[in-house]
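Blinded run. Sample ID left blank on purpose so nobody reads anything into the name before looking at the predicted structure. Input follows.
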Amino acid sequence: MSTADIDDWIREVKAQPGSAAIGMFLAHQGIVRGTARSGERVRGMMLGADRDRLESVLAEAGTWPGVFAVRGWVNEELLAVGDDIMKVLVAGDFRDNVFAALQRLVSQIKSDVLSESELR
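Blinded prediction complete.
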């Protein structure tokens, strides 16, 4: 699957009507780590994604307080250490709203959209 470009997303969102309400962009780019939480070595991971659920989660996030726009992309294949897992962008009015939205959105994607297994 092709990757997403966060800078392209920012340009796209800035070009939307009403974008003068945006006070900040916050992005997350998750990658495959070389170690598990337990400290064990990881060779890679197998990642799957529920695409319909991703679209639903992104649409819902766009309605959260202070959020102007969201974008998201997830990988879905056999990944090596250093490969991208996901990219997420939140544009919103104030820092408190945007930080909270990004954290909530990334957590929802991890729990509701992705299926992953580390290869050790």
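Unblinding after everyone has recorded impressions. The beta strands are 24-31, 44-49, 67-74, 78-80, 84-92, 114-119.
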